[in-house]
Design goal:
Length: about 260
């Protein structure tokens, strides 16, 4: 009886972490593909241009481009199909240019997402539109992409919404019983890059965030070496932060003021 109980315990102790390791891509990434008919309909109903480029490995990548100055490269959350921002950006930030990036497997981009490909593709988009003032804007998981772009390319500033220090630290909070540091392949370690960041930062934080508690953003903010602003939105949760009155007001102010 004791041997059977120990066997069950061993199976759970080994099997569950193994299962989580194998399933981590599905836990982190939630692709939101768009039907081609939907893309064509949106292309006809908006002033935004539907843009395609090829990744280094040949994967077809898509983004929505709204012309304007400066240009904001937008990287969304892990379950976000970014075309919802077409109307929102045009209404809330008139005159500002936007490049709303579809990760692999999201929107009209092919392939499957990973940290490596998301960052490589983001850098390719940056290089495609380089030449003017470029800001990076990362929301939730997208903050990890935006920070890596800002570390590798010249940007006028970074807007991070509901960001985190590293995905390892967030994972430890949600799965304290697992060896997350050993298991996680997609680490999005923004904290490691923050001490050498020189780009101005606007850090917007939902103070009631139930997914990425504010302390993760605060660690990243404190480590950021460049000029920075902390915008805590009281009462905001992870998915309601953009509905707060101060949200777009501060984004527009950050994008339109002259560099110091």
């Amino acid at each position: 009886m004791l041997e059977a109980a120990l066997a069950v315990i061993a199976l759970v102790a080994i099997g569950f972490p193994l299962l989580m390791f194998l399933a981590q891509d599905g836990l982190i990434f939630h692709p939101q593909p768009m039907a081609e008919s939907r893309r064509l309909l949106l292309s006809q109903g908006t002033s935004a241009e539907s843009v395609f480029i090829d990744a280094a490995d040949g994967t077809r990548l898509h983004a929505w481009h709204i012309k304007g100055d400066p240009l904001v490269l937008y990287f969304g959350g892990n379950a976000e199909e970014v075309s919802w921002m077409l109307a929102e950006a045009a209404r809330r930030a008139p005159g500002v240019g936007w490049l709303l990036v579809d990760y692999r497997g999201y929107g009209s981009s092919g392939g499957s997402p990973s940290e490596r490909t998301m960052v490589e593709d983001a850098l390719r988009w940056h290089d495609r539109f380089a030449g003017g003032r470029i800001y990076v804007f990362g929301r939730s998981l997208g903050s990890g992409v935006a920070v890596q772009v800002a570390a590798a390319r010249p940007v006028a500033g970074a807007i991070l919404v509901a960001p985190f220090d590293s995905l390892v630290e967030v994972g430890k909070r949600h799965y304290p019983f697992l060896p997350v540091n050993l298991m996680l392949r997609h680490r999005f370690d923004s904290m490691a890059l923050a001490p050498r960041m020189r780009a101005p930062l606007l850090c917007i934080v939902a103070m009631e965030d139930e997914i990425i508690p504010a302390e993760h953003a605060k660690r990243l903010y404190d480590a950021w070496a460049g000029e920075k602003r902390w915008l805590p939105l009281e009462g905001a949760r992870h998915n309601s932060i953009d509905g707060m009155p101060a949200y777009w007001h501060n984004i527009n102010k950050f994008l339109t003021e002259k560099p110091s």
